[in-house]
Here is the input.
Amino acid sequence: MSDNLLDILQQRDDLTEQELLNYLQGNLTPEERRAVEEKLADSEMMSDAEEGLRMADAAKTTFAVNDINRKLAQQLQQQRRKRKHKPIPNLSLVIISTFLVLVLIVLAYLVIHKMRNGQ
Here is the structure.
């Protein structure tokens, strides 16, 4: 039994998960597809994995995708609400600064107007 386990663990040419998914999705070139099919024929474990993935219920996958999209939409909506209701920091400082700027503008106008009329 331990010899079989060592043989399985020492196999270096097994398919990667990405290769198997690309094969099932049809995203491989004909050469890559042929190489994957040869590996599937050589490995009973990989062949079983491929069969299991093919048998995966599409409805469950669709439900999972929809659930993830719904949760993501909720999170984005919460973030937008937080941004909209974010209070202005130091509102009193903004009001005082605006008032001072307006006073300075009025004073500058009066000084310029008085200088023009005085000359």
In short: The chain is about 80% helix and 0% strand. The CA atoms of residues 8 and 50 lie 17 Å apart. The longest helix spans residues 91-118. Confidence is low (pLDDT under 50) at residues 5-12.
